[in-house]
Amino acid sequence: MLGVEDLSISFGGLTALSGLSFEVAEREIFALIGPNGAGKSTVFNVVTGLSRPSAGRVRFRGEDLLVLAPHRIARRGIARTFQNTEVFRQLTALDNVLIGRHAQLRGGLLRGALGLPFVWREEAAARAAARALLDRVGLVGAAGVEAGSLPLGAQKRLEIARALAAAPRLLLLDEPAGGLNPTETQTLMELIRGLRDAEGLTVVVVEHDMELVMGISDRVLVLNYGREISSGSPREIAADPAVIEAYLGSEEA
Ligand SMILES: Nc1ncnc2c1ncn2[C@@H]1O[C@H](COP(=O)(O)OP(=O)(O)O)[C@@H](O)[C@H]1O
Ligand SMILES: [Mg+2]
């Protein structure tokens, strides 16, 4: 479904990704892990069109993504969440989800936000769909609550609901368990698994929480300094000395 081929990108003198290649199959849960600064979020930025690589190819269902603007990439069926949770804090949870839908219909999150109060906002079908998505992530009781006042775990799930409102086929989750407690993380794991099992979504997840990575991923790719150092099943990468060294090297230095 997603093919990344020989991807390289630099920022000034810093090489963020260097010759990275991987493929993600439809209905796969694929994890990208690695120390801070390894280039994980940069992969998402390139796939969603926010950053342009200096070399390489990115294909989605056979189509070249690198020639497309971000809103067109979104319309092809790719949605993401951000490492720093980015809900619209002063809007209700329901309106946050409605914006996600609007981004799909009209192209562009900002335009969606600006156009929010009119026409479709009152559209019963849109609201019902948004409520169903809140229900899907366990937040239907919070529909009328200001997003900024929700606990972090709920904001993270709200961001997922907003991404789902664009009806993606590929969902990119950037550190969805960051800052969550173990109970919230379990809920999140069940949600991600359910999105794949019940809705047939393909998921690429960047995450530091190894319980989540080991618990839900079909395959894992380990990045360090913008290069792949290992890939395989969770079991395989957990036993790879190169992975263990990269983690110990970065966390205990
Ligand atoms: N837009 C940017 N401008 C300059 N440097 C960037 C930019 N995006 C990422 N970087 C740098 O690229 C490297 C990889 O960043 P990132 O992909 O965010 O890592 P990760 O998500 O694995 O922690 C880091 O050194 C980061 O500072
Ligand atoms: Mg990151």
**Name of the CATH superfamily of the largest domain:** P-loop containing nucleotide triphosphate hydrolases
Assembly form of the protein: single chain
- CATH topology description of the largest domain: Rossmann fold
Q: Taking strands numbered 1, 2, ... along the chain, how are they ordered across the largest sheet?
A: 6-7-8-3-9-10
Beta-strand content bin: 15-25%
> What overall form do the CA principal axes indicate?
globular
Tell me the series of helices and strands, N- to C-terminal: EEEHEEHEHHHHEHEHEEHH
Ligand identities:
adenosine-5'-diphosphate, magnesium ion
Question: Largest sheet at a glance?
Answer: 6 strands, mixed
Could you give the count of β-strands? Answer: 10
Distance between the termini: 38 Å
Percent range for helical residues? Answer: 40-55%
Unreliable spans: none
Q: How many separate domains?
A: 2
Taking Cα atoms only, what radius of gyration do you get, to the nearest Å? 18 Å
User: Tally the helices: what do you get?
Assistant: 10
Name of the CATH first level of the largest domain: Alpha Beta
> Judging by the overall fold, what is the CATH architecture of the largest domain?
3-Layer(aba) Sandwich
Based on secondary structure, the structural category is alpha/beta
Summary tags:
Rossmann fold, binds adenosine-5'-diphosphate, 253 residues, globular, alpha/beta, 2 domains, 40% helix, 23% strand, binds magnesium ion
